[in-house]
Amino acid sequence: MRENGMEYDSDLLTLSVIGYCGTCQLLTSRVGKSTLIDQYINSTSRIDDHSSIISYSDFNGDVICGDHWLFWGEKWPLRIMEQCEFVDDHLFQPIHSTISYIDRCLETKYVVSIPKLRYYCKTQLGVEDSFPKHYLKPGIYPIDVFMCVYDTTLSQQAALDQGKFIEQVLYKISRSKLNLPLVLVTSKHDSQPSPIALQLLSSALKKLKKRWIRTYFSQLEVSSRQHINVDSAFQVAAQLACAIRRGEKSDYCGKNISYRKFNSRSETAQSRYI
What we know:
GO molecular function: GTPase activator activity
Number of helices: 7
Shape: globular
Order of helices and strands: EEEHEHEEEHEEEEEHEHHEHE
CATH class: Alpha Beta
Distance between the termini: 23 Å
Strand content: 15-25%
Helix content: 25-40%
Largest sheet: 7 strands, mixed
Number of strands: 15
InterPro entries: P-loop_NTPase, Rho-GAP_domain
Number of domains: 1
C-alpha cells in the first residue's frame, strides 16, 4: 500500500513499545523495555546493558539512523519498535530532537526514510558488520498496538515522574479516535515493589473509562529476568491488534495476567491470534 508516495507493509502488526525514561539526573531509572523485548526475541539472551548513553556517531549510524527509536526486528506476527531517549556520551544530555519524548511515544506511525538496521545489542553499534544484517525498508508503518512498560520498583522522584508519564499516556491513547489497543506491562515483579509506584498506577487506572478498558486494554505482570509472562505479553498484544482489525473484542480485554512463580517456559497466554 502507498501513502504520500511512500510504501508501507500491512502484513505484519506494528508494535510500539514505550515507557518512562529517566532524566539525565535519573539515568538509572530504566523501566526494562529493552530487556523485555530482548527476552522475547531471544529467550536465551543474558544481555543486561541496553544503556541509552551513546556516541553521536553511533546515533547517526545504520542502526539508529538519527532517530530516537529502535527496530528490533520481526517475530511473526509482530514488527517490534521501541521508543527511546538517547543521551550524548560526552555532554550527558539528551541528543536533540524536535519532538519531546512523550509526544514521540504517542505518535501513531513510524516513518522510515532510509533503510534502518535491526538492533541486537549496544555492542553492535560501531561494529555493525559483525552482526547479521536485517533492514527495515523505507516506508510508513502505522502502529497497530502499544505496549507500555511500567516499573513497579521505582521510588522517590523517579516514581512520581513515571506516574505523570503513565497518566498522560493512558489519557491520550484511551481518548484517541484511532481506537488503538494498549497492553500495560508492569515489570520487575521478581523484585520488591515500591508502594508509591503501585499507588500511582492504581490512581491512573481509576481515571480510565471502563468501556475503553473492556475493549482496548490488557495488563500483565512480568519478570524479564525470570522469563515469566514475557511471551504472553507479546502474544496478548498481537491478539488484541488482530481482534481490532477484525472488528471483534479480544478475550484478553480488561484482564490482568498476574505474575506467578512457575516454570519459566510455562506461559499463560497461547497463540490465539493465529
